[in-house]
Write a structure and sequence with these properties.
It contains eight helices and ten strands. It has 278 residues and is an alpha+beta fold.
Length: 278
C-alpha cells in the first residue's frame, strides 16, 4: 500500500468526524460472483424524478385553487396544498439521502466499531413534512370556522380523516427529532451484524447468516442477507450510505473467515484486510 493510502486511512480515524468516506479502488479478495456487473455502479436518485416533478406541480395547482377558487372550496384547497407540500418535502428528503450515498467507497462513522451509516433521514425536513400534515387539518378547520362554514364532508364523512393526518404529522415530527440520534446503518461486529433502518436495530448473529448477495429491488440495488432459517433480509444503500458491492464484499469476507473477525474492532484494519484504499 502506498504512503498516500496509509495517510488517507489513518486520517479517517484521527479526524473523529461523525462520518467520513473511505474511497475504495478495488477489492483485494473478490468473493461475489459478478463483481463487474453494470448493476453495481449504483442507483441514481433519478428514479425519483417522476414523483419529485409531479408533486410540486400538484401543489401549485392546489395553491392556484386556494387563491382563485370560490370561498366554499378555499379551505379544502389550502389543506390540499399543505398536504402536497409535505409530500414534496418528503420526496426531497429521499433525494438528499440518495445523493449522500458514497458510490465510490464506504461511508464510515469514525471511532469505535465498523459502522456504515446512511444519510440522516430527514431531520429538519422531516419535521417540516409533519408540520405540513398537521397544518393541513388546522388550516381547514380554522378557515371554515372563520368563514362560518360547517366542517367539510370529506372530514365528517370519513371517520378519522383529520386524526389520520394529525397522527402522521406528529409521527413525522417525532421521527425527524429522534432519528439523528439513531442513525440508519450497518454495524459489522465480532459477534453479529447489526442493521437499523428505522428506530429499531436488528441483530443478525454470524452463525445464523448463510450468504450475502446483491439483488434488484424495484429500481434499486439492495444488499440481500440470507439465513439458514427465516426469510431473507434486504437493505437498500440509502440505509448504509455506501456502495452495496463493497459492503457485500466486507460482510461476505468476514462471514467466510471467522478467524479474522477480531479485526472488526478496528475499522481501518478491517477495511484494509479486504479493500485497497485510495
Amino acid at each position: 500500500m502506498t504512503t498516500r493510502a496509509k495517510r488517507s486511512i489513518q486520517g479517517t480515524s484521527a479526524m473523529y468526524s461523525r462520518k467520513s468516506v473511505v474511497q475504495i479502488t478495488r477489492v483485494l479478495r473478490p468473493m461475489l460472483s459478478h463483481p463487474n456487473s453494470c448493476e453495481l455502479s449504483g442507483v441514481s436518485w433519478k428514479c425519483l424524478e417522476g414523483p419529485l416533478c409531479l408533486l410540486p406541480l400538484l401543489s401549485l395547482v392546489a395553491l392556484a385553487g386556494a387563491i382563485l377558487g370560490e370561498d366554499d372550496l378555499r379551505p379544502l384547497a389550502v389543506s390540499t396544498t399543505l398536504v402536497f407540500a409535505g409530500m414534496s418535502s418528503l420526496m426531497f428528503v429521499s433525494v438528499l439521502v440518495y445523493r449522500r450515498i458514497a458510490w465510490t467507497g464506504l461511508r464510515v462513522r469514525s471511532g469505535g466499531e465498523l459502522h456504515l451509516v446512511g444519510g440522516e433521514y430527514g431531520g429538519p425536513l422531516t419535521v417540516l413534512v409533519g408540520l405540513c400534515f398537521v397544518g393541513s387539518v388546522i388550516a381547514e378547520f380554522w378557515l371554515r370556522a372563520n368563514m362560518g362554514m360547517p366542517p367539510s364532508s370529506g372530514y365528517s364523512g370519513r371517520r378519522g380523516g383529520p386524526l389520520f393526518f394529525v397522527l402522521v404529522g406528529l409521527g413525522c415530527v417525532a421521527f425527524g427529532i429522534v432519528k439523528p440520534f439513531l442513525p440508519s446503518g450497518i454495524r459489522i461486529c465480532e459477534d453479529a451484524v447489526w442493521v437499523r433502518k428505522g428506530i429499531i436495530e436488528h441483530r443478525m448473529p454470524w452463525d445464523q447468516l448463510e450468504d450475502v448477495a446483491l439483488k434488484m429491488r424495484g429500481k434499486a440495488l439492495a444488499l440481500e442477507l440470507s439465513f439458514e432459517s427465516g426469510p431473507d433480509y434486504s437493505v437498500r444503500p440509502m440505509y448504509f450510505g455506501s456502495n452495496p458491492y463493497y459492503v457485500a464484499e466486507l460482510i461476505l469476507y468476514y462471514l467466510r473467515h471467522p478467524g479474522r473477525r477480531e479485526l472488526l474492532r478496528d475499522p481501518d484494519a478491517a477495511i484494509r484486510e479486504v479493500m485497497e484504499v485510495a
